[in-house]
Amino acid sequence: MTLVLSQLFTGISIGAVLLLIALGLSLTFGQMNVINMAHGELIAAGAYTVYVLQKVLSGAGLSLLIALPVAFVVAGLLGVLIEVLLIRRLYARPLDTLLVTWGVSLILQQVFRDVFGAPNVQTRAPSALTGSIHVTDDLVISSSRVFILVLALVAVAALTAGLRTTPLGRRIRAVVQNRDLAAVSGLATGRVDRLTFFIGSGLAGIAGVALTLVGPIGPTMGTNLIVNAFLVVVVGGIGQLKGTVIVAFTLGIVQSMVEYTTTVSVASVIVFVVIVAFLQWRPQGLFTLRTRSLA
Amino acid sequence: MFRIPGRRSAAIVAAVAAFATLTACGAKTTDSATTSGAGATIDTSGSSVKVGLLNSLSGTMAISEVTVRDSLKLAIDEINAAGGVLGKQIAPVSEDGGSDWPTFAEKAQKLISQDKVAAVFGCWTSASRKAVKPVFEKNKSLLFYPVQYEGLEQSPYIFYTGATTNQQIVPGLDYLKAQGKTSLYLVGSDYVFPRTANKIIKAYAEANGMKVLGEDYAPLGSTEFSTIVNKVKASGAAAVFNTLNGDSNVAFFKEYKSAGLTAASMPVVSVSIAEEEVKSIGTQYLAGQLTAWNYYQTTPGAANEKFVKAYKAKYGADKPTSDPMEAAYTSVYLWKAMVEKAGSFEVEKVKAASAAGGITYDAPEGKVTVDGATQHIFKTARIGKVGDDGLITEVWNSGEPIKPDPFLKGYPWATGLS
Q: Which CATH superfamily does the domain covering B166-294+382-414 fall into?
């Protein structure tokens, strides 16, 4: 029983990491239909922010806390820069966007290499997050994982509340549901796009901060992770926050349970097969957005 | 405004995902070795002779391989300052293997045919060595490989200056057996070294009444270890034998500590973690854990004091020295000894000089002798314990240099492995 519980928690924590990465994507890809291949590098930018802050400020705990808002802004601004310079001009050409952002991703990776050096770097975790919490005598959960889970849940709650209640959120939803109608109603859709992209990219930065607690920081750390995050968004249903959350946790739990009984590689294969089968059955994903838009 | 329907964008993403996965797995194939013929040409015109340094300076293995490159350069500088080899200065040409095996093969070919080097020093993972092995054999050029490995190999064009299994893994297992550990859990990166090493460990365990309770592999560079650690913990094994490589170790040991496992409750014996890795993983995660090597920074002796001092003077007082660095440093001196004995840089003459026997060097790890028959070297096995200061102190050694036995012919339990 303890084993099942601790494996369940492992699954949830894998899901939380996935969710943090996928949240940003669910905005830029899900809501705006932009396939941003450089999303992984925005994650790395967030992680390197922690690294830099830790060099400047000595306290590991303090630098992690300060890194959260700073990484959000750094990655967000980087995202806006990409949007203004490139993506904005390519909204009607999704495949070109894909190629262009892939190029951006390669350029950013090289920039990280030149600035921070090619070898991966590590940060020190604050002492409060290096230990573990004993739920029972046998059931031990890692406190950094709990931190990531809480961070992911807070991010989801903030994003949901933001989209539901704030004027900006209403504008974002309006543009997503019917861009033309939103435009003729007087909404500056371009500005809404930019803000959406800022928030989506900023969330990637937050994910980067969280990932420094799990493993090393490197120029290609994000690329290895965004594939699964894209899958989460697609399976959850394009433009559906609810779907993203459910699928991230389900995928995490399935992955950890299958991995426990088989091996890492077999688990990845099985998860992939399950996803392909699911998309055959429901190509539109778990949830679909119903609008009266003709597109 | 154009919008992609969900179905189509999903298809695009699936295609992209498949592509990215392929790239991430390093599944690309490159046809590298193109030239063939009799013997590599070595450029000995001029006052210097080139040698190649082939190490991963980027990617997941850079954590370990950059330090090997640094100590190779130290040895070359020392030799040059003392007058060079056969009156020629050594000019190193450094190439980045990028933690990617086909790249290693490409760069090896470049060093041999374009730079016309006399020998190449480098490679860390067995996957990279296996990738370059045909290149060196085809071009009849020399590789000096400085890292402990899984044995069961003997290329006529490779000199192995790191430990083979009977100089590292087998003594490590002997040590665990002597400590009364009767069950093991095997954790490793998913490539040739850990898989072969674990095959050997399982054969040893079966013959020595030890139980292997589980065996898990993570992709090289993987940072998700919570499930593997849960499995290790649930198995209740007496010890863990760790063959993870690169910075996966960082994630593994962080997870190991968070799961409440310690060196006291379930010790981990690592064969790819040396002083440099201890520093980057974090001493708090590793203190008390065991390692199996042939050299530590703390190994006594005048030769080591000189090496450590020279290394710190060149690269910084906070830089530790480690076994692969020492084996790399030693490999340059061994090459020099062979060339001087042969009186030539020519590969076949150098090989003949080594085969004739008697190539020795007072290395930091102690006196090493090249075994001309196997092109491996005699090494003393040393088990160490990671201290709170991040240095490793020896808790046991084999007393004398062990004769290399890459195919484990002297061990009855190992029949059938090679």
A: Response regulator (3.40.50.2300)
Strand partners of residue A191: none
What is the β-pairing status of strands B120-122 and B143-145?
A: parallel
Q: pTM of this prediction?
A: 0.78
Q: Where in chain B is the domain with CATH 3.40.50.2300?
A: 48-163+302-377, 166-294+382-414
CA B305 from chain center: how many Å? 23
On whether the CB atoms of residues B384 and B172 are closer than 8 A, the answer is: no
For residue A173, pLDDT beyond 50 = yes
Is B259 in Cβ contact with A142 (below 8 Å)? yes
- Contact call for B224 and A134, based on CB within 8 A: no
Strands B89-96 and B48-55: parallel
Average pLDDT estimate for A209-236: 86
Output DSSP code: residue B386: E
Q: Which two tokens stand for residue B59?
A: 């990617």
CATH number of the structural domain B48-163+302-377:
3.40.50.2300
Structure tokens at B361: 């060097």
> How far is Cα A258 from Cα A262, in angstroms, rounded to an integer?
6
Task: Please name the residues between 118 and 157 in chain A that touch chain B, using a CB distance below 8 Å.
Answer: 118-120, 122, 124-125, 130-132, 134, 140-145
Q: Phi and psi dihedrals of B299, rounded to 5?
A: -60, 130
Query: Which helix H or strand E contains B160, and what residues bound it?
Result: strand B158-160
pLDDT in tens, B284-321: 889 899 999 999 999 999 999 999 999 999 999 888 99
Residues contacting residue B188 through CB under 8 Å, at least 6 positions apart: B194, B195, B197, B198, B215, B216, B217, B218, B242, B243, B244
Q: Which residue has the tokens 């009186």?
A: B343
Nearest to B189 by CA among B270, B246, B269: B246
Q: Which long-range contacts (CB under 8 A, 24 or more apart) does A265-274 make?
A: A265/B190, A265/B217, A265/B219
State which residue of chain B sits closest to A275, comparing Cα positions.
B14
Which secondary structure element, helix H or strand E, spans residue B93, and what is its range? strand B89-96
Q: How far is B260 from chain A (nearest CA, A)?
A: 7
